[in-house]
TrEMBL record:
Keywords: Cytoplasm, Histidine metabolism, Hydrolase, Iron, Metal-binding, Zinc
EC number per UniProt: 3.5.2.7
Binding site for 4-imidazolone-5-propanoate: R81, Y144, H176, Q243, S320
Record InterPro entries: Amidohydro-rel, HutI, Metal-dep_hydrolase_composite, Metal_Hydrolase
Biological-process GO terms, alphabetical: L-histidine catabolic process to glutamate and formamide; L-histidine catabolic process to glutamate and formate
Cofactor remark from the record: Binds 1 zinc or iron ion per subunit.
Gene that produces this protein: hutI
GO MF annotation list: imidazolonepropionase activity; iron ion binding; zinc ion binding
NCBIfam families registered for this protein in UniProt: hutI
Function: Catalyzes the hydrolytic cleavage of the carbon-nitrogen bond in imidazolone-5-propanoate to yield N-formimidoyl-L-glutamate. It is the third step in the universal histidine degradation pathway.
Similarity section: Belongs to the metallo-dependent hydrolases superfamily. HutI family.
Entry protein name: Imidazolonepropionase
Length: 404
């Protein structure tokens, strides 16, 4: 929280309307109590708001965007999987490796073996890397613990990342993979995932519930049971859907008014219509698409035509997307998915806020949370244009500047 502060001389990218950048040259933002109180051309700032300022900052013509929101990460885990990367380069597929007991399961073993302090240290370093490129809100999933205690531990570590000043939302992904102690008993494991949910919720560790609906993970029927439990507990759901094959997961998730369906390379027309009707956000993950050398593109044009909001995320995880660059996700969304730079920025701001059920952020408009980024750029399309160059000058979290 902060007193009344005027940020003037910025080239504002407000995203205030459904279309267009919403540019305000020589713009001003008035922040108070952690929120944006007023936005517009400095010349229009009402006289009564110019008095009683606690501070005034000259942004010197820098570009200002809403803070970046990563709505899909698996940030808390032990170990790494570079050996699998080599195996995949030699021809093994992601599914082959998972079926042979590697993949997610190998990270589960490494996560269970790690102590809480080392899980925290590695997760903090990853969160800081994301913040370096303008992260202000972060979603983190569990799913590498797969026992009540280990899932709780990972969710606690995720929650603790909010000490960095960012908002952290935690998602329970118990239905990520089958842990070895449940081999041959997937339905018993789904029962356990459901049984743990109230305990984790009561401990204040869950904002949403996710599942991996896929032929190497959980069936639509099993996913439905997880979602029914979430609904009984009043928890919103999201889904890893149609990443490697079309399981009809998106339509199932839409039946439960899912906040988002994520991945979606194999999404069908029926899935798109169901998502549009339910107001479910499509979260596309260009890092996983790239790193798994996927060739099937998510149906971006059909999603646009149906009016489904498209968000982007890093999907940071050790198996399918070990990257930590939000700006590179914007660039890849444009080069691979033919999204426009404006769509890419919306994908990491206003649409990613919606994918997390957070309507209080993602645009520079009065009443929203004062989370924004200051960039050394003349035009917002530059954020999607460069890769390997970070033009961030500063991040403002709830009205307070955090220098790089
Ligand atoms: O989003 N698809 C499932 N989960 C992760 C990958 C997890 C892993 O390989 O460790 C994903 O791609
Ligand atoms: Fe994921």
């Amino acid at each position: 929280m902060s007193g009344r502060q005027l940020w003037r001389g910025g080239h504002l990218v407000t995203l205030a309307q459904a279309q267009g950048w919403g540019l305000v040259p020589d713009g001003a933002l008035l922040t108070e109590g952690g929120q944006i109180r007023w936005v517009g051309p400095l010349a229009d700032l009402p006289q009564d708001l110019r008095v009683g300022l606690d501070a005034e900052v000259d942004l010197q013509g820098a570009l200002v965007t809403p803070g970046l929101i990563d709505p899909h990460t698996h940030l808390v885990y032990g170990g790494e999987r570079s050996a699998e990367f080599e195996m995949r380069l030699q021809g093994a597929s992601y599914e082959d490796i998972a079926r042979a007991g590697g993949g997610i399961r190998s990270t589960v073993a490494a996560t269970r073996a790690a102590d809480e302090a080392s899980l925290r240290a590695s997760a903090l370093a990853r969160a800081r890397a994301l913040m370096d490129e303008g992260l202000t809100t972060l979603e983190v999933k569990s799913g590498y613990g797969l026992s009540l205690d280990d899932e709780a531990r990972c969710l606690r570590v995720a929650r603790s990342l909010s000490e960095l000043g960012i908002t952290v939302r935690t998602t329970y992904l118990g239905a990520h993979a089958l842990p070895p102690e449940f081999d041959g008993r997937p339905d018993d494991y789904v029962d356990a995932v459901c049984a743990w949910m109230p305990t984790l919720k009561d401990a204040g560790l869950i904002d949403a519930v996710d599942a991996f609906c896929e032929r190497i993970a959980f069936s639509p029927q099993q996913t439905r049971r997880v979602f029914e439990t979430a609904r009984r507990l009043g928890l919103p759901v999201k889904l890893h859907a149609e990443q490697l094959s079309d399981q009809g997961g998106a339509a199932l998730a839409a039946d439960f008014q899912a906040l988002s369906c994520d991945h979606l390379e194999y999404l069908s027309d029926g899935g798109i219509q169901a998502m549009a009707a339910a107001g479910t956000v499509a979260v596309l993950l260009p890092g996983a698409f790239y790193f798994l050398r996927e060739t099937k593109l998510p149906p971006v044009e059909a999603l646009r035509r149906a009016g489904v909001p498209i968000a982007l995320a890093t999907d940071h995880n050790p198996g399918s997307s070990p990257g930590l660059s939000l700006l590179l996700m914007m660039n890849m969304a444009c080069t691979f998915f033919r999204m426009t730079p404006e769509e890419a920025l919306r994908g990491l701001t206003v649409h990613s806020a919606r994918a997390l059920g957070l309507p209080d952020r993602g645009q520079l408009v009065a009443g929203q949370r004062a989370d924004f980024c200051v960039w050394d750029a003349a035009h917002p399309r530059e954020l999607a244009y460069y890769f390997g160059r970070n033009p961030r000058r500063a991040t403002v979290l709830q009205g307070r500047a955090h220098e790089p």
